[in-house]
């Protein structure tokens, strides 16, 4: 489902939205583009706050947008940063994404075009999920 053209489209969307990030405290702007199984793309950027706990990551911003639009199944996620090396989603983002797509394929891109690819379940082994609530 995710071919080279799709990855490039997601990469461009993630870098485009990264330009809108609000990161005055960390100076670490992040953009994310989340692909739903039905082919829609949802974007998010990090939005920091002086009360750090009120900040939201780009990945959860994209996920929130997707869920609000009715999407519940996801195929791919691109994370775009200005870091020198690829940066996978943080722990809380991994947990939030796992609720919907434990097998999500994630690519983290850096500005020079390099990337690392991950599968979400591998980034969060022994995850807490709905099976523990039964």
List keywords for this structure.
5-stranded mixed β-sheet, alpha+beta, 22% strand, 134 residues, globular
Describe the 3D structure.
The protein has about 130 residues and is an alpha+beta fold. Helices cover about 30% and strands about 20% of the residues. The protein has helices at about 5-20, 60-70, 90-100, 120-125; strands at about 30-35, 40-45, 75-80, 105-110, 115-120. Strand 4 and strand 5 form a beta hairpin. It is globular.
- The helix-strand sequence is HEEHEHEEH
Spatial shape: globular
Structural class assignment: alpha+beta
What is the quaternary state of this protein? single chain
Q: Tell me the number of strands.
A: 5
**Unreliable parts:** none
Give Rg in angstroms: 14 Å
- Mind describing the biggest β-sheet? 5 strands, mixed
Number of helices: 4
Percent range for helical residues? 25-40%
Q: Mean of the pLDDT scores?
A: 96
| Spatial strand arrangement across the major sheet | 2-1-3-4-5
- Strand proportion: 15-25%
Q: Span between N and C termini?
A: 33 Å
């Amino acid at each position: 489902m995710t071919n080279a053209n799709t990855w490039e489209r997601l990469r461009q969307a993630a870098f485009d939205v990264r330009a809108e990030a609000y990161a005055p405290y960390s100076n670490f702007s992040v953009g994310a583009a989340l692909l739903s199984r039905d082919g829609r793309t949802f974007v998010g950027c990090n939005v920091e706050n002086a009360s750090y706990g009120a900040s939201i990551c780009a990945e959860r911003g994209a996920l929130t947008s997707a869920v609000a639009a009715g999407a519940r199944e996801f195929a791919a996620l691109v994370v775009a940063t200005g870091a020198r090396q690829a940066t996978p989603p943080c722990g809380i983002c991994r947990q939030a994404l796992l609720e919907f797509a434990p097998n999500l394929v994630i690519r983290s891109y850096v500005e020079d075009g390099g990337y690392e690819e991950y599968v979400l379940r591998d980034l969060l082994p022994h995850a807490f999920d709905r099976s523990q609530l039964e």
